[in-house]
Amino acid sequence: MFVLEQEEYQREGIQWTFIDFGLDLAACIELIERPMGIIAMLDEECIVPKASDATLAQKLIEQHLGKHPNFEKPKPPKGKQAEAHFAMKHYAGTVRYNCTNWLEKNKDPVNDTVVTAFKASKENELLVEIWQDFQTQEEAIVAASKSGASKKKGKGGSFMTVSMMYRESLNKLMTMLNATHPHFIRCIIPNEKKQSGVLDAALVLNQLTCNGVLEGIRICRKGFPNRTLHPDFVQRYAILAADESKSAGEPMAIAEKMLARLVRQKNLTEENFRVGKTKVFFKAGIVAQLEDQRGELF
Fold this sequence. Notes:
- The structure is a single chain.
- The chain has 15 helices and 6 strands.
- It is mostly helical.
- It has a 3-stranded antiparallel beta sheet. A 3-stranded antiparallel beta sheet has the order 4-6-5.
- A hairpin with a 2-residue loop joins β2 and β3.
- The chain is elongated, with a radius of gyration of 28 Å.
- InterPro entries: Kinesin_motor_dom_sf, Myosin_head_motor_dom-like, P-loop_NTPase.
- This is Myosin motor domain-containing protein.
């Protein structure tokens, strides 16, 4: 969010000095997703004979410790905390990880006999429908031999790990989100007792910090969070600069004339806004001021 906001300023050609907020998540994502990242190594270890959680932890440490800024040696456990094999720096803070049972959980094998029984059920049509597209290992081998191809998906043939399915699901979600214009609502838990009228300040502050809300506010203060297309600005605020709004020219030029008049009238300052290639950008709170001025003239 922080990087994309500033990239839009750059695309629009407005006067802006790029600020490094130190919150670029690319390094953390790379550590998790890259070809020799944590997930890839986890999947690889799931098909290695005689592999164990201990061998996975050792390989992760050998591959990343001291070589990646987000991969760290974990601090000693406190109190009843379990021993951690490694630690990773996320946006919200450093998280300690214990690899116990990772391989078993990632494999998450489904017994072929059980699947076959579900598919053949004559009592429950819903159960048959749910499992009809699921291929057993035997079915996958038959399908592969008929097509002349090797076994299905991945190095383990029909073997599909939890992390593989997660990545596939995540890719579909990102494709959908990138095709839309999503808006997000941040839900904050006021207290852990589920009591009305009780606000745990420390709990709320921690959530606002971890969710990036506080950083978002900081960026809004430094940047231009409100924006409107040139034609929309001209149409909505024409009453504030009637003569200029009726002048000939492109919407961008008309918007600049209207804003110049508002500056001369001391209704705005030049620091309150920027005119981009397609939009007018405003500092936080400025649109509300314009709306108040507009309301006074109706």
